[in-house]
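Table S4 entry, RNA-binding protein KhpA.
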Amino acid sequence: MKQLIETIVKPLVDYPDDVKVVADEQSQRVVYQLSVNAEDMGKVIGKQGRVAKAIRTIVYSAAGSHHGKKVYLDILD
């Protein structure tokens, strides 16, 4: 899943080396925390959050059941 998030986000940003995805797995859910360069934050979020929503939709769809755990994607400042 981390690879999928990086594959989606890296082409969108000016600083692809600064893209980092950290997985925080808990008993009932998995939270992927995405961080990018501060200058790229607007590109990842998009106008009215449309790009962020699209990324989340893809990630949630790809996760499927993920072994019965709920999957979340947080975009960190």
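The two ends are 21 Å apart (CA to CA).
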